[in-house]
Amino acid sequence: MQIRALASADHAAALALWEAAGLTRPWNDAGADLRRALQGPESTVLGGYLDGAGLVATAMVGHDGHRGWVYYLAVDPAHRRRGFGRHMMAACEDWVHRHGIPKIQLMVRRDNVGALGFYEGLGYEVSDVTVLGRRLRLGEQVPATESGQGQHPEDDRDGTQPDERGPGEGVRR
User: Fold this and answer.
1) What is the spatial distance between Cα 74 and Cα 46, in angstroms, rounded to a whole number?
2) Which end of the chain is less enclosed by CB atoms within 10 A, N or C?
């Protein structure tokens, strides 16, 4: 398998591969993720190519200046169990290393036991952190609170103001 930057002609094939691998979610625009990753020097999408078969694997890799991240590691179901996922991860690690970043991370859904076992087999360990997230509405102004911090109106559904919450009290949903 040859690994190189994803060819523009293969964007649709990459999206189809992500769908076939179960990596996409209806609330997430995978096409927009792909375009953003290819726009800047801090990220790319790698493609794994086989003669006669074309694109058989992908991995989105990038960094935030502190750590590397891997997303959308996918291997065509017809080409699994041949070491292609391992080769794609090695290429991601090499990309991150060449960019001078000292560590690499990825996120795996808790119920994806097969992926967890795959990454543990490569030497990845579960980190003692909790990932917090918030969906932003692109193009929408986020109003500033009196303290100057941004807060979206829906984050105050319980009727309390941020300064009325006690330590450790988040927004109740």
Assistant:
1) 11
2) C
- CB 59 within 8 Å of CB 16: no
Residue 11 backbone dihedrals phi, psi, to 5 degrees: -60, -45
Q: Which domain holds residue 117?
A: 2-121
Q: What is the pTM of this model?
A: 0.78
User: Residue 85's closest CA among 58, 67, 53?
Assistant: 58
Domain assignment present for residue 159? The answer is no
**CATH assignment of the domain containing 50:** 3.40.630.30
pLDDT, one tens digit per residue, over 10-64 is: 999 999 999 999 999 998 899 999 999 999 889 999 999 999 899 999 999 999 9
What distance in Å separates the CA atoms of residue 6 and residue 60, rounded to the nearest whole number?
A: 10
**Residue 34 token pair:** 């792909």
Q: Are 91 and 58 in contact (CB under 8 A)?
A: no
> Does residue 127 lie in a domain region?
no
Most distant CA pair in the chain, distance = 63
